[in-house]
């Protein structure tokens, strides 16, 4: 149906120094794949994909190097990746290039190396600024180390720093979360993401915290406490000047995440590396594919054929519409743009939401002309509202 004129790249670096007990991301601690071999494979996958999709020379809007722990890699490996992306696509100085960094692998030399390699945005996995909570999460760093990493990133020349924080941690109380927020705000990062801890099946946390509290040394906060934590974050951050532009994301003006906004706007991106997902909005209503998650198998597949896809799907019109509605609602300030939606799907979102008129009446959705937004009452219950909004 449409072909975007810009592209984003996600690179997955699936290695971690240790495995956090709550984490279900695709990452491993030991591997027989070397850093060099992995980078070579990503570069081979890049050329293969660019050629197959005839993407050479398209404007590159963003690169996101995530994981896992990409900061385990050397600046020269990251530099090789960035340089190759710049060669394959057309990237100007505005191109946002982010790397995720863990405080325990963020030494000043390495951070300066990333900056020199062309990375211009850093996302630091701070998670909490309370040592008891970091310990409860099984994180390898301390609060002090996280603050040091932040200042080291500033000293290395990064003027666009994001930090991630988690609430709903075992043993956490609303006043302790508030302390973490106040300490984080004092650093004045350009971007802050807050995520509620979810207990994912198959993780050590899931066995310890089944049924919310039993068998673990610290109990999980009550649901009402989690609501209080989220609300206090919204209040403190917006009062401090960060705009609440997406359910979990806050940015100082001019510092919203370019890369993540591509996802929420349904724009094209290619994912490189083990377990990476890609999405292209053409032909038809769009398609996605995803890669082999095991690094050794990924490297083998790439060596053999230049690709490591293990799954793919083409979207039907109603699936594409549903995704567009749900992603649009997540964007608190922008909402679902009625005109753009009409342009793509031939129908106004208001028509699609007719069957859920109760959501507006009860103060969960706000309709302004043809645009639709989550109302303040809906933001707190976003997951539930999104589930209702997507039901037939
Ligand atoms: S560092 Fe991040 S990706 Fe690695 S195990 Fe911990 S939470 Fe998961």
Describe the structure.
By secondary structure, the chain is of the alpha/beta class. The protein contains 16 helices and 14 strands. It has helices at residues 35-52, 75-88, 108-116, 131-137, 143-155, 174-187, 204-209, 223-239, 258-264, 295-305, 317-330, 338-345, 349-352, 357-361, 376-379, 382-389; strands spanning 7-13, 60-67, 96-101, 121-127, 161-167, 191-196, 243-246, 249-251, 269-272, 277-280, 287-291, 309-314, 365-368, 371-374. The strands form 3 sheets. A 9-stranded mixed sheet has the order 7-8-6-5-4-3-2-1-9, sandwiched between helices. Helix 1 (35-52) packs parallel to helix 2 (75-88). It is globular and about 55 Å long. Iron/sulfur cluster binds at residues 16, 19-20, 23, 25, 27, 67-69, 102, 125.
SSE blueprint:
Blueprint: E1 7-13, H1 35-52, E2 60-67, H2 75-88, E3 96-101, H3 108-116, E4 121-127, H4 131-137, H5 143-155, E5 161-167, H6 174-187, E6 191-196, H7 204-209, H8 223-239, E7 243-246, E8 249-251, H9 258-264, E9 269-272, E10 277-280, E11 287-291, H10 295-305, E12 309-314, H11 317-330, H12 338-345, H13 349-352, H14 357-361, E13 365-368, E14 371-374, H15 376-379, H16 382-389
Parallel strand pairs: 1-2, 1-9, 2-3, 3-4, 4-5, 5-6
Antiparallel strand pairs: 6-8, 7-8, 10-11, 11-12, 13-14
Helix pairs in contact: 1-2, 1-10, 2-3, 6-8
The structure holds iron/sulfur cluster (SF4).
